């Protein structure tokens, strides 16, 4: 499980893959001054145990006392004859970094490599109790022959004695054994004292059938059995048996009941000999390893007491939200925020009311971090609703309205700013940096501790008197009694009362570490993380910290370096309302500068760069490139402000000039004078394009356009199409004064171009009043647009065939028809006539409703309209087309106008009458876009609108009355089996009788009246209830008139299959299964086959048609039906074995493929290689890759599939080719049909897009859920 954990001189390990691109250096330590441990994937159990060992002073100091002479050097581990103890060395290096390295978290990669973890063990979660025993055993083995070889035994080993006392002679038999940890059962135990009492105080009486064989008495006697603790170690480890096994459900589960444990534990009642020194049996809790999750996985973290006051503790109830700062932007780095509590608090603190909906909170979280809650936190904290409910002390969550708000509205305002920068000298929680040998927190006996306490007492007045009082009221635990939560890379202070929350639940205590209360610590060790560390190690860690600081400084310089583009005024000129380059292209000067510098530093750098050319007095303006050219915006004036506060970033364009003129021309600056690029047309094809300042007045604009166009200002008319009040209007941009009274077009009452809301690229039309006739009314922009349509005469009463009509979008179709009738000279047209479109690809479209306008009907320029006899549909009617029988046959297509609210039965009557048919033994079926049959309209009383029948739909009128509600109408055919074929016909026995009888029926030698082809015969139609069983269906089939001459011995000898596309498919299984359960659809075709035995195909069996291929002729042999039993496996190998057994061949010499007739393709059946899964997957066992399931994607093997078999030796060059000549022809036909359909789709799309006006939208149908009516209680 743990690899070669006990092998010291393991082989060298490959380097970890380095991520591409520059990476930021490790972050400095957090405010609490403890370093966390990186989780390599699933090493939380290891991290919790390592932090416990680190904060066990006796273990840590004993480890550091081992010198290089005792352990060896890592560089010599590969030398022959060297004895290098890798695990202790790597533990020393890890502890050294955790204590003194100025980083937020430390990696355990080197340590796990020393464990021999080479098979991604860091991604597999293991048990912390098991690791504790294995790691201690590995350390003991590593330290043999060194001064520390007794380290584990002296600190952690105790002794248990098992005693049996004979009640007859008093003889005591005992067996002594060492223990590393005390394992206690928590089921049915209230707490640790209760469990210890049951184990080491209670005695078991051995009597009756369980008597003891006494060596002294030489007979079976009554006895007392008990276990006693003979000696206790300084560090007492208690393992809680949280995981149990349910022998009823045969599954593991976790004991989540309440199990208490004290902070101070008196072990004197449980030891064998009562000691006079009670201090030896008094223990204090200093570490709790916690497991959160289930018996099949979860997360470990640890609550550990800071015995030596190495950290800085602050009240977790009043501590500010600690979100790291991104050095690149100076803003909160939500991506690296590991605490969901802090993340949610910061997000809520940024909204006005400190509250929002949970959905919006999740969206904001994804926006800030790029990862959703479910991917980042759900595994460890559960769903977000459960998380918010659990943290009711911090959030107010209302599940009814799905709303969340901060419990303490001032939490982020009061403390966030003070806590974000731990190095802020004005921050009351700031702790002075540590030196080499000095501590940095917590105890008043140390100078630094006094400073920390003084800081705690002298809270800065800027925090507020209320915060001070709250802090003093809560108080700070005394030295050595401060607890921290070590959760992988994150370390945070906690209150001791939080330990009580781990008594029960899915997140509960798993291991307890007690320390003997009499163990005292030297004064020099208090608050001093460098205590007992050798000088050589101190030098190495100081060098590492120095390198880290250099990396951070270099990184901050790189991320804060910006490259601005300087543009000097001598390279530009001001023309057409914007700046333009004299060189024809930009040649900016790039200047690199730290964005943490001030604007004055930038001015100095530019002055040094430009020299005398820039001049003594120059200013900087932001510059942007616009379609009209370059424009200047705000001036950078405050020279004491930082560049990052001025939003100077990479690529920022700055213009260097005197602030007034460029090449002697005055330049306007600012957003209000931003130029808009306009195209001005004043003839055909005369036009010009340039930029105009937005603050230019309309009079100035008219004068400027007049100078370009040559039109006098008195007669100049400017027009454009703008969006106003959700509609397009032709707007006059001012008119000659003598024409103002005649103005009828809408005119904008604004004084500048900005009020027109003009955009870059807008078209302005300049005309003279002598050529323009003013409109008499205020029309929308496109109301006056006229175009021509072509009308074709199909009334056949006039010699004129077609003509052109000029129309506009508001013209009513009835007017168009009357105008066409007038110009054609038509008077008496049957039913008044109607208009419809004749599309070049889609053919004749449905006739138009005459109430519609040209625009509403979607008629565009050059549309071909057909004028024909007939009644036009009304607004509540629609036009449908239909055919009888096969829609792809030669049956004529009919058209009918019906009401939208008419029932399906009424529509059928109209269609029957239209087609000249009789009777009501008909039903309707939908068709798709390609006129292929679709589903049946079963509810005859439903309206066409509720059935989603729309204008222009094509329906299929089929003969046959629909069955009653709850019944199925099925068409039954008789099909032969493979035994019925002549080549396998028997001459005697029952099979021969059945075969000969069926052969006579199919070949017409019988007197049967069955009509059909030689391969299938129609038996008739049956109506049967959906709740009828398969046995009922067989009996009803035998009652059909066509079944009278069938040689059927019993109903169970009939095999019933579903026909799909004329092919035998699904076998109906289970005589007592209902047709509803078997999902038999109405109006489906069923095939029956007569068998010489009962049909007992089970759900695990698949009926397949196997055909052997002749590679030379590309022809397949006759069908051989096989039954593939999938209960033994659904892989390709299992199927290949079944096929090989059928053909009496070896599996090694054949390959198989499935035929897809609808695609004219063959898919080779083989097990695809599976990639090994990394880590555990829910529901799957480790290391067991899933095989290909032939009944799932992409194979979908089912009843009736054709399996082709090829001998590999016959075609070794192309073993994957199973195609036939018919497949080639079918593929070509499909290609042609696909091209036709593609062309039709493009025409439909074009038809929809070419419309200048919006099409009539289909009427929306409300969603309904029909509930069954309940009978009233009588």
Report the major sheet: 8 strands, mixed
Structural class based on helices, strands and sheet pairing? alpha+beta
Q: Please state the average pLDDT score.
A: 78
CATH superfamily of the domain at 1098-1168 and 1188-1240: Phosphatidylinositol 3-kinase Catalytic Subunit, Chain A, domain 1
Assembly level? single chain
CATH-derived topology of the domain at 1098-1168 and 1188-1240? Ubiquitin-like (UB roll)
Strand content: 25-35%
The dominant shape is: flat
The total count of helices amounts to: 26
Gyration radius from CA atoms, angstroms: 45 Å
Gross CATH architecture of the domain at 1098-1168 and 1188-1240:
Roll
CATH class of the domain at 1098-1168 and 1188-1240: Alpha Beta
Helix content: 10-25%
GO molecular function, one term: cysteine-type deubiquitinase activity
Coiled coil: 538-565
Domain USP: 35-517
Region (Disordered): 1-30, 1215-1274
């Amino acid at each position: 499980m743990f690899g070669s954990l006990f092998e010291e001189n393991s082989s060298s390990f490959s380097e970890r893959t380095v991520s591409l691109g520059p990476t930021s250096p490790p972050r400095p330590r957090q405010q609490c001054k403890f370093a966390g441990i990186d989780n390599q994937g699933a090493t939380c159990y290891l991290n919790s145990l390592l932090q416990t060992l680190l904060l066990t002073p006796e273990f840590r100091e004993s480890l550091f006392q081992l010198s290089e002479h005792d352990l060896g050097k890592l560089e010599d581990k590969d030398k022959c004859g060297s004895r290098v103890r890798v695990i202790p060395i790597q533990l020393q290096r890890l502890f050294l970094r955790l204590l003194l390295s100025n980083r937020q978290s430390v990696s355990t990669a080197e340590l796990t490599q020393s464990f021999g973890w080479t098979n991604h063990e860091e991604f597999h979660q293991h048990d912390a109790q098991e690791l504790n025993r294995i790691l201690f055993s590995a350390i003991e083995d590593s330290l043999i022959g060194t001064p520390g070889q007794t380290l584990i035994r002296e600190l952690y080993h105790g002794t248990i004695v098992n005693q049996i006392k004979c009640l007859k002679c008093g003889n005591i038999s005992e067996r002594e054994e060492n223990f590393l940890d005390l394992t206690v059962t928590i089921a049915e135990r209230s707490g640790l004292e209760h469990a210890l009492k049951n184990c080491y105080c209670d005695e078991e009486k051995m009597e009756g059938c369980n008597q003891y064989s006494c060596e002294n008495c030489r007979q079976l006697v009554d006895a007392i059995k008990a276990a006693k603790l003979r000696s206790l170690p300084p560090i007492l480890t208690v393992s809680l048996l949280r995981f149990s096994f349910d022998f009823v459900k045969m599954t593991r589960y976790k004991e989540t009941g309440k199990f208490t444990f004290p902070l101070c534990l008196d072990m004197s009642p449980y030891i064998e000999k009562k000691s006079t020194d009670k201090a030896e049996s008094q223990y204090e809790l200093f570490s709790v390893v916690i497991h959160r999750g289930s018996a099949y996985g979860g997360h470990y973290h640890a609550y550990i007491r800071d015995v030596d006051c190495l950290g800085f503790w602050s009240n977790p109830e009043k501590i500010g939200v600690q979100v790291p700062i991104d050095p690149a932007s100076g803003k909160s780095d939500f991506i690296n925020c590991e605490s969901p509590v802090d993340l949610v608090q910061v997000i809520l603190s940024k909204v006005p009311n400190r509250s929002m909906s949970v959905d919006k909170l999740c969206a904001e979280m994804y926006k800030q971090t790029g990862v959703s809650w479910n991917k980042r936190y759900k595994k460890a904290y559960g769903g977000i609703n459960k998380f918010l409910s659990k943290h009711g002390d911090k959030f107010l969550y209302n599940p009814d309205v799905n709303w969340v708000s901060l419990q303490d509205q001032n939490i982020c305002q009061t403390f966030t700013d003070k806590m974000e920068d731990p190095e802020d000298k004005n921050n009351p929680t700031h702790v002075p940096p540590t030196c080499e040998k000095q501590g940095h927190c917590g105890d008043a006996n140390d100078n630094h501790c006094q400073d920390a306490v003084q800081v705690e007492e002298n809270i800065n007045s800027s925090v507020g008197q209320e915060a001070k009082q709250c802090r003093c009221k809560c108080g700070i635990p005394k030295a050595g009694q401060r607890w921290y939560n070590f959760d992988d890379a994150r370390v945070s202070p906690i209150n001791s009362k939080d330990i009580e929350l781990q008594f029960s639940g899915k997140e509960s205590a798993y291991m307890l570490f007690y320390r003997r209360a009499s163990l005292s610590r030297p004064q020099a060790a208090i608050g001093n993380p460098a205590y007992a560390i050798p000088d050589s190690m101190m030098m190495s860690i100081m060098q590492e910290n120095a390198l880290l600081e250099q990396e951070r400084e270099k990184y901050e310089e790189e991320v804060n370096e910006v490259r601005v583009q300087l543009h000097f005024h001598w390279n530009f000129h001001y023309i057409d309302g914007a700046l333009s380059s004299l060189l024809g292209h930009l040649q900016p000067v790039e200047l690199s500068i730290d964005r943490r510098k001030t604007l004055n530093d930038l001015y100095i750098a530019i002055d040094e760069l430009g020299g005398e050319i820039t001049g003594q007095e120059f200013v900087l303006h932001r510059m942007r490139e616009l379609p009209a050219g370059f424009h200047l915006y705000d001036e950078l004036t405050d020279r004491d402000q930082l560049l990052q506060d001025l939003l100077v970033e990479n690529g920022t364009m700055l213009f260097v000039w005197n602030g007034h003129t460029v090449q002697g021309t005055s330049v306007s600056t600012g957003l209000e004078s931003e130029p808009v690029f306009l195209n001005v047309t004043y003839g055909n094809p005369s036009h010009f394009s340039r930029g105009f300042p937005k603050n230019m007045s309309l009079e100035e604009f008219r004068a400027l356009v007049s100078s370009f166009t040559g039109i006098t200002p008195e007669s100049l008319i400017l027009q454009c199409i703008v969006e106003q009040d959700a509609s397009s209007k032709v707007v006059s941009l001012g008119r000659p004064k003598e024409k103002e009274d005649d103005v009828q077009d809408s005119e904008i009452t604004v004084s500048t171009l900005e009020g027109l809301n003009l955009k870059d690229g807008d078209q302005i039309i300049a005309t003279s009043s002598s050529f323009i006739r003013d409109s008499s009314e205020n029309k929308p922009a496109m109301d006056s647009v006229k175009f021509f349509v072509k009308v074709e005469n199909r009334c056949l009463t006039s010699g004129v065939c077609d003509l052109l009509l000029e129309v506009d979008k508001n013209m009513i179709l009835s007017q168009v028809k009357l105008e066409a009738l007038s110009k054609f000279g038509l008077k008496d047209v049957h039913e008044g006539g109607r208009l419809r479109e004749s599309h070049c690809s889609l053919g004749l479209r449905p006739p138009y409703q005459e109430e519609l306008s040209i625009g509403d009907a979607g008629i565009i320029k050059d549309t071909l309209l057909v004028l024909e006899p007939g009644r036009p549909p009304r607004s509540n009617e629609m036009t449908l087309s239909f055919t009888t029988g096969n829609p792809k046959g030669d049956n004529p297509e009919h058209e009918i106008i019906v009401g939208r609210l008419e029932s399906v039965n009424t529509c059928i009557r109209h269609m029957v009458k239209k087609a000249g048919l009789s009777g009501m033994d008909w039903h309707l079926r939908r068709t798709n876009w390609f006129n292929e049959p679709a589903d049946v309209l079963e509810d005859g009383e439903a309206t066409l609108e509720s059935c989603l029948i729309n204008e222009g739909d094509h329906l299929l009128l089929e003969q046959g009355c629909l069955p009653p509600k709850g019944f199925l109408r099925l068409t039954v055919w008789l099909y032969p089996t493979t035994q019925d074929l002549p080549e396998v016909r028997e001459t005697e026995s029952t099979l021969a009788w059945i075969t000969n009888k069926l052969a006579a029926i199919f070949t017409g030698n019988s007197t049967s009246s069955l009509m059909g082809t030689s391969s299938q015969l129609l038996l008739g139609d049956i109506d049967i209830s959906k709740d009828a069983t398969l046995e009922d269906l067989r009996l009803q089939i035998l009652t059909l008139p066509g079944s009278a001459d069938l040689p059927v011995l019993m109903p169970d000898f009939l095999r019933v299959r579903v026909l799909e596309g004329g092919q035998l498919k699904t076998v109906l299984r289970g005589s007592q299964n209902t047709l509803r359960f078997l999902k038999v659809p109405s109006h489906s075709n069923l095939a029956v086959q007569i068998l010489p035995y009962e049909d007992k195909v089970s759900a695990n069996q698949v009926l397949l048609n196997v055909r052997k291929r002749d590679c030379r002729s590309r022809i397949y042999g006759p069908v051989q039906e096989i039954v593939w039993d999938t209960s033994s496996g659904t892989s390709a190998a299992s199927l290949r074995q079944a096929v090989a057994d059928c053909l009496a061949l070896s599996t090694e010499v054949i390959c198989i493929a499935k035929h897809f007739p609808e695609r004219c393709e063959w898919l080779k059946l083989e097990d695809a290689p599976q990639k090994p899964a990394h880590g555990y997957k829910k529901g799957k066992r480790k290391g067991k890759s899933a095989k290909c399931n032939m009944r799932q994607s992409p194979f979908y093997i089912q009843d009736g599939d054709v399996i082709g078999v090829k001998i590999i030796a016959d075609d070794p060059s192309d073993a994957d080719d199973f195609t036939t000549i018919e497949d080639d022809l079918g593929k070509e036909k499909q290609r042609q049909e696909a091209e036709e359909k593609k062309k039709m789709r493009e025409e439909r799309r074009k038809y929809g897009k070419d419309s200048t006006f919006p099409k009539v939208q289909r009427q929306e149908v409300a969603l309904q859920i029909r509930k069954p009516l309940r009978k009233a209680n009588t």
